[in-house]
Queue: 4 jobs
Job 1
Amino acid sequence: MKSIGLDLGTKTLGIAISDKTGLIASSYKTIFFNEGEYDELLNPIKDIIEKEEVENVVLGLPKNMNNTLGPRAIETLEFKQKLEDFLGKNIILEDERWTTVQANNLLIKADMSRKKRKKSVDKLAATFILQSYLDKNRKG
């Protein structure tokens, strides 16, 4: 069962996708959009879901370190509702604390330039989000 992972930023959406077995998440792409214009993302996400035959949609929820919901989490929850209404399917929330830090650290260790990191960090963070979900929900 294929899943897609989404890391929603203010101007970027990082996307990861799993293999058909639902074991391994891989970076897919980053979509750049106008700041706060989340409606611009609905059709591109739907196109990817249809093209890749995705069953599960996993959206990173940026909780505060004390487990509360701040302004970014509230925006994410609003986007989740829009996406559910648009796609007609449930969106799974996955805690994304530390995923961007993990992604940046990995890219720094790979000696990637700051400019290249900026283009890759969101889809890598989405990969961490999706892999976390896959690991927790592995059957058997």
Job 2
Amino acid sequence: MRELSIKYGCNPHQKPARIYMQNGGELPFEILNGNPSYINFCDALNAWQLVKELKEATGLPAATSFKHVSPAGAAVGVPLSDTLRKAYHIDQDFELSPIACAYARARGADRVSSFGDFIAISDEVDISTARLLEKEVSDGIIAPGYNEEALKILKNKKRGNYVIIQIDPDYCPEETENRQIFGITLEQLRNNAVINDSIFDNIVTENKNLPPEAKRDLLIATITLKYTQSNSICFAYDGQVIGCGAGQQSRIHCTRLAGDKADIWMLRQHPKVLSMKFKEGLKKPVIDNAIDLYLRDNITEEELKEWETLFEEVPEKLDKQEREEWIKGFKGISYSSDAFIPFRDNIDRAAKSNVRYVVQPGGSVRDQDVIEACNAYNMVMCFTGIRLFHH
């Protein structure tokens, strides 16, 4: 297939629309089910690059959950604890393959944002992953292959309209890429920067203890940023993204957004949250939104009234001390920045979410201020020299 017509572009009035190869070659994917939209393709092709690179960097199966051309979550296939299973609405006796673990973690990073997502999987999609996915609200999936039974399961989603794309895992794009803005073509070398353990060698802080688990999480966070709309900050922990702040004009706003999401991820595992008793018949997205409201400080009176109707017993809110003490229990949070950190306020905010490991390109006139801030919190910080803006 050399060309595919699309119903419309980003919005219904933007038509005609199509996808094709400028060099006249064959498209490196096959549509197995559904009718992908323009935005589906934007998500799918960025998401596939992320999981392919994450698998190559870590050797573990990888998954990501994309919304509006930025990842809501990304992860590798690390087993889930019983607590995470409960927080992610997964039965304790459900058998999770490594690929399914990666997907569950990617979806669980920010379940509210992942509603209606597009998913990418680095490996052949198995039955375990398909069984998890069939219960979630999602637009589509891209992967290099599908188990026969898994494909049957996925084809039944969305009344048979679930988008399923099979990508050629050996496809390699040309070295240069271009795009048009206002009828004017821009061209650049494709972002082929290699992200691996070696980029963390330049440790600039007094604390230089960077264990293997931290390197893995820094890889996850940094590769995720490579495919996140800039400015962007990513928090990672235990083999997965736990908070991503994308597309903000100010880096501190990225950090606050990512940090707030990371805090919610941690607090979702608090005993008070896990013991909530919801009314029978509520769907998972409603429960996820209710938990999100519960963990917010600025809930309105109208929201509170509606929220209280969802429970068998209205739960007691977590107070500030409970929240802070619970977050302190998560040791070794990783933080990555797609460009240099200009002010120490980013480090001060990261410290509130118990960040221990930081990676950034470096190159700010205030680098020393940021290093001193990390030293004050006994953090480890690496300078990579690689900026990862994505637009």
Job 3
Amino acid sequence: MTEIELKYGCNPHQAPAGVSIPAGSGFAVLNGRPSYINILDSLGAWQLVRELKVAVGRPAAASFKHTSPAGAAVAGPLSDAYLASQFLTADDLSPAANAYVRARGGDRMCSFGDVAAVSEVVDLSLARVLYDEVSDLIIAPGFEPDALELLKSKRRGAYLVLRIDPEFEPPEIETREVFGFRLRQKRNTAAIARTLFERVTAGAAPLSADVLETLMVATIALKYTQSNSVCVAFEGQVIGMGAGQQSRVHCTRLACDKADKWLLQQHPKTLRLRFKDVLPKPEKANVVDQFLLWDQLSEIEKGKLCAGLVNEPAALTAQERSDWVHGFPGICLSSDAFIPFADNLDRAARSNVRFVAQAGGSARDDEVTAAAQRYGMTMVHTGLRLFLH
């Protein structure tokens, strides 16, 4: 074991703080000085992308905040509308950069100041993306020399760069100490494989390869999300994460609201917003976020929104929102435990969710299954609970 002194604990007044680095982990701080939360987030994010890469077989990335993923994705297609919605013009991204652009774009607001993790060696393409984003840290299995030099210059030299060995496996038993009490448990090594989604309880079978992959991405993301949690995903990318709620329907509402926003960011009316040249990317994201809440804004808030634009925004109607969201096929939802009430599917249906994965085993399974059939959803029972505390 090697000891590293940390900047501080969860808060600046919680010092001293430190971490014990296990032998064989290959863990190294290549730049910056991490805090307690930096270590927690980086290890959670790293486990997620490592498992995604193994399960799906493509480069994977995650954008982590406060011990849960804001977004996660595997490398895949980037449409012109998606690139425009993310204020990107280049489409010559490396696979690692592509995966991270998709992961971060799952929730631009929550990815602000994120911990980034990728399953691949960081190349210059990804380093350039990170350099231009508000990000606090990157953890990866390695770094090309020119990429490392660029990242070391980010944030006036304070950007955190962490390396870890992808072959490292921790002990089977993990421990934690809370208020002087030491707890032990077997580490969550349950594999999220395609066979997990074979038990179809509503709808047609079998699921297509694309849907299976997206359900795997959503479910692996949930494995590293504070429970209760519900995840909405599309084409191998998380587009709405509802994390850490005491009620599952609140998780579903949160995840679906975020997914709706992700979809509506690509609506022609949203893409027609013209920003003032002085507006940085985070401020543009804020304007879009407010635009998509237009009917809920006060006159003062609408005035602030318009102050960042050079054209007059044309608000989306309720019908336009619904029509647009229902134009995206293959939207998937996964739950980290059983879905206890049909109201979760009532909300999911409004976001055009067509495929649902849940543990099953609720006293009201029949009611939830009937709701899935009523909405024409395909639902599977995995039999696997994935709580994380």
Job 4
Amino acid sequence: MVLEIDPAKRRVSLGLKQTMRNPWEVFEEKHPVGTVVEGEVKNITEFGLFIGLDDDIDGMVHLSDLTWQGRGEDVIGNYRKGDVVKAVVTEVDTDKERISLSIKAVEGDPFADAVAGVKRGSIVTVEVTAIEDGGIEVSYEGAKSFIRRSDLSRDRSEQRPERFQIGDKVDARVTNIDPKTRRLGLSIKAREIAEEQEAVQQFGSSDSGASLGDILGAALKDRG
């Protein structure tokens, strides 16, 4: 393509690049967002990996897109130049000539899979994985959560992390689901309160002359 004609200098400027399509536009057509691509690690920086793609263009995997578990800074050392990796296209910016990739997205989101169907108010069974002074760490289908000391029981005397052991299975009420922090908000206390309220609704109330002990006793007998 003719770019410029300079009669004084008797010079014609031509451009080969202008006769070809923008390679980033071509890439976006072939590999829209969500597509899995494969490429070779070309460079490793403090920000992430640069992956060689079609038409001699590179895509970048940011540290935050290397792994679901732990920090990207801790796993980037596992990669070497020349490694062939798979990644999901998460963004194509043709104006800035930038392609964003995610290695962790290739296997899907384990947190989203774990909490699929779980809602606030749901009762879930979790496994105790660690015991700390401030509460207990638990796991639900691989999703980690932390139950604070104050949420271990409605009875203050039972709000003791040491009464649990690693491997114990406990039921807790879901109080929050946070996809950003990838954490479930859980409370044993909230579960106990909800069970008491349900028992009062089903088997009477203190206004009717029944004590809380009578009501809970009736509920337990009915469940048995």
